[in-house]
Write a structure and sequence with these properties.
- The structure is a single chain.
- By secondary structure, the protein is of the alpha+beta class.
- The chain has one domain: Sandwich (Immunoglobulin-like).
- It is 25% helix and 43% strand.
- It contains 3 helices and 11 strands; from the N terminus they run H-E-E-E-E-E-E-E-E-E-H-E-E-H.
- An 11-stranded antiparallel sheet has the order 1-2-3-5-6-9-8-7-10-11-4, with helices on both faces.
- The chain starts with a helix and ends with a helix.
Length: 167
């Protein structure tokens, strides 16, 4: 039940960006927050690019981490990682913040937390942490390691949450 809702959220954010426009809520150190709407419902999200992207690849698309709220669909704190490549089918992504380690599942170019409880735990760790390391494997078997700064994460999270009426 969780995956279709997440997939709809990602499609909605992507489609909305081109269809209705995005309202920037601000840049907070290494994170930026945004608000948009789809079908009259608010969608708020925040994103950041890695400070360091490692791996033996020749070409890689956009890489970013994102947290999103879609209160109308009761989808809050949805964590996703965009790899910039297609993940190996059935592979897992290792996400580490401080001493906390999480495993995400993959679909296409995106990795997701396995449950809403995992999403909440990852967000909590990100608020307390200073960096996040994400390790994945491409469909060609290339291993990558992306390091994100968490400076500004909490401020961006507060702005996103306020804009979507989430407490």
């Amino acid at each position: 039940m969780r995956f279709p809702l997440i997939a709809v959220l990602t499609v909605a954010i992507t489609a909305t960006a081109s269809a209705q426009g995005i309202k920037p809520l601000g840049e907070f150190r290494d994170w930026a927050a945004y608000r948009t709407s789809q079908g009259g419902e608010r969608v708020c999200y925040m994103a950041s690019k890695p400070k360091k992207a490692e791996g033996k690849y020749k070409k890689r698309g956009d890489i970013y981490a994102m947290v999103a709220h879609r209160p109308g669909a009761k989808a809050l704190n949805v964590v996703s990682i965009q790899a910039g490549y297609r993940y190996k089918d059935g592979s897992k992504v290792a996400l580490k913040v401080g001493g906390r380690a999480f495993t995400l599942f993959t679909q296409g170019q995106t990795a997701w937390a396995n449950s809403t409880a995992d999403d909440a735990a990852i967000v909590k760790a990100m608020k307390a942490g200073s960096k996040m390391v994400v390790r994945g494997t491409s469909s060609r078997g290339t291993k990558t390691k992306d390091t994100y700064s968490l400076l500004g994460f909490t401020a961006a999270y507060k702005a996103m949450s306020r804009a979507c009426g989430v407490k």
